[in-house]
Design brief:
The strands form 3 sheets. Strands 11-10-9-12-8-1-6-7-13 form a 9-stranded mixed beta sheet, sandwiched between helices. It has helices spanning 37-51, 68-78, 94-107, 127-135, 188-195, 235-244, and strands at residues 2-6, 9-11, 18-19, 26-27, 33-35, 57-64, 82-87, 112-116, 139-149, 152-159, 162-169, 172-176, 199-202. Helix 2 (68-78) links the parallel strand 6 (57-64) and strand 7 (82-87). Helix 2 (68-78) crosses helix 5 (188-195) and helix 3 (94-107) packs across helix 4. It is an alpha/beta fold. The radius of gyration is 21 Å and the shape is globular. The structure holds adenosine monophosphate.
Length: 249
């Protein structure tokens, strides 16, 4: 079974992003970039499936600028066997990425595609769902447990009222939730080994996909700044302030 793992290069989760002065976008010049955290979980899950003898090959895919190769190398240091980089300098929307992933899933005859549930930059939460629809296969989003037996997959999802279990036939699409696993630390020997693995480079045109944006970003602005809080000396003062100043009780 071949597993495809799409990995997106995003602003590192520790970075506090700033809005550009003209309000056109967030400023990501000279900002630390990393693999989307949900994608690390996806690579870890694929690696565990391979270690358990369920998968034969893991292919990490990233679509975007030249530096996306860094996140493919990280995926290889975790456990991916090889990489595919779809080089594209213009911003990519989920639909364009989903179309390219569909073309790759078919080209590679993948049985499983494991994506992050959402990219922490745009928070779109769309690519996995769109891929499943375009590819015409079942999907299980927000997975907290994945079990495979032959051609059958059972996925547990955490939902509001408890746990939901879905059973489906492969090929299929899974998106990862936070509690699926805890990704391993990447070791130096594995980083060195990853340097020797191959990354094939393609263009969107090679996959027959037109990536022209369909959405227009009108404006980006900071959330309203919060007023500073105060400390109250006792519960009675707190209740008094809530009742007479904030007027919420
Ligand atoms: P999104 O729908 O943008 O929130 O992204 C969901 C998931 O789709 C991510 O966690 C990645 O696994 C995958 N993905 C989105 N954009 C890209 C990209 N440019 N390259 C590779 N994978 C991507």
């Amino acid at each position: 079974m071949k597993i495809l793992v799409p990995v997106k290069r995003v602003v590192d989760y520790n970075v506090k992003v700033r809005v550009k002065a003209d309000g056109s976008d967030v400023d990501i010049a000279n900002v630390k970039m990393s693999m989307n955290p949900f994608d690390e979980i996806a690579v870890e899950e694929a690696t565990r499936l391979k270690e358990a003898g369920m998968a034969t090959e893991i292919v990490a895919v990233s679509c975007g600028v030249a530096q996306c190769q860094d996140v493919i190398r990280t995926a290889m240091a975790i456990g991916a066997d090889r990489g595919i980089h779809v080089l594209c300098d213009q911003p990519l929307e989920p639909l364009a990425v989903a179309k390219m992933l569909k073309a790759l899933a078919e080209k590679e005859s993948a049985q499983l595609v494991i994506l992050g549930k959402q990219a922490i930059d745009d928070d779109a939460n769309q690519t996995g769902q769109m891929l499943a629809a375009l590819w015409g296969v079942p999907q299980a989003t927000f997975a907290s447990k994945v079990e495979i037996s032959g051609e059958q997959m059972t996925v547990t999802r955490e939902i509001d009222g408890g746990l939901e279990k879905l059973s489906m036939q492969l090929p299929a699409v899974v998106t990862t939730d936070l509690r699926l696993n805890e990704p391993r630390y990447v070791t130096l020997p594995n980083i060195m080994k990853a340097k020797k693995k191959t990354i094939d480079q393609l263009s969107p045109a090679d996959l027959g996909v037109d990536v022209t944006p369909r959405l227009k970003q009108l404006k980006v602005q900071d959330p309203p700044s919060r007023k500073a809080g105060i400390k109250v000396s006792d519960v009675a003062t707190l209740v008094d302030k809530l009742r007479n100043e904030a007027k919420v009780i």
